[in-house]
Amino acid sequence: MPGGLTRLHDGAVVINPYRIWRAVETAPTEAEAAVVEAPVIGEERFRLAFEQAMAGTVLVGLDRKVLEANDAFCQMLGRNRDEVVGKCSDVFTHLEDRDISEEAHRRLTSGEVDQVSYEKRYLRKDGRVVDVEVSTSPVRDDTGSMLCFVASVRDVTEERALNAQLSHQALHDSLTGLANRVLFEDRLSQAHTRTIRRGGWSAVMLLDLDDFKEVNDTFGHLVGDELLVALARRFEEVTRSSDTLCRFGGDEFLYLAEELTSAGQAEEVAERLLDVLAEPFSLAGTRVQQHASIGIVVLEGTGKGWTELIQDADAALYEAKRQGKERHVLYTPTMRQQAAMFGRVLGDSGRRLAPSPLAHPPPVRSGADTPRYT
Predict the structure, then answer these.
(1) In terms of domains, do 15 and 48 share one?
(2) Cα dihedral sign for 335, 336, 341, 343?
(3) Is the model's pLDDT at 343 over the cut of 80?
(4) What share of the chain is helix, strand, coil (3-state, %, to 5)?
(5) I need a labelling partner for 66 at 20 to 30 A (CA). Which of 8, 143, 244, 262 fits?
(6) Domain count, the chain
(7) For 70-97, what is each residue's pLDDT tens digit?
(8) How far apart are CA 331 and CA 271, in angstroms?
């Protein structure tokens, strides 16, 4: 049978595949008079399907005003039917997403497409944001004239929140919440590309806690973990918005400094990281003084890969430890040679830099890896 429209509630018009809309341009009362009666059972089935649909279902006129909405759609918005029907969809749409709705409406009314799917945000009556997926199609009479639009709306707020959580867990350290090695490597690759293309400077810093093993041995691993979290929060306080701070594993951190005005500015950034350690930490009723050493390697448009850059920073870190700890040292090629003589880069660093898939993030327990420097 040809499709059409019928009324489910006073003043609202919805599609009914068992009826024909004969008067597209007339007022609703005139249109109703022109409706051809069909079997009551068909109308009842459609009404039940519309009302009981788990997905939000809404009919929107050519003027973008809501003609009818089912309970699922109204509940999604936290509004009753009277607060929805007759209103332009912009009333419920997030201000930043209204252009998405307007573009979808334009494409449908122009005949560019006969169905459109998009994502946007609604605003509930209580102010909460609802992420939704919308699929909209035109409703036509038996002559092909467009009458209105029917939209199926699915609430994907929880789904997106879960995906965001899983994505965060895959790219962040579970203990400190900092970026993990996977995310850092991606950021480093992007920074390296920008440095080669635009010029300028970026720097990678490898920070290792001095004598951290003594904290674990004296106070236990739980206090050691608390100290790592407290350290992360302090480092975050001086992390620039353009930079990336990462827990590399155990008692080591990586810092990517971008958009530097000079190579010397990298040392200024390293100095700020060390300065936040001046104040002792209060953990489990105990004051703990923690220091660190930093190795710095500056990116100046070189073609070095991730592994080689970290090994250079590791060589500079070795030099900082050799000079007495609690300091930062800028990498020079001779440092790499000296470190290699002692099996430093090819040994410890080589094992740390072996491929580590997402399924094997850095260990959470601070005692999992014995600190390399004591």
Answers:
(1) yes
(2) positive
(3) no
(4) 40, 25, 35
(5) 143
(6) 2
(7) 999 999 999 999 999 999 989 999 999 9
(8) 15
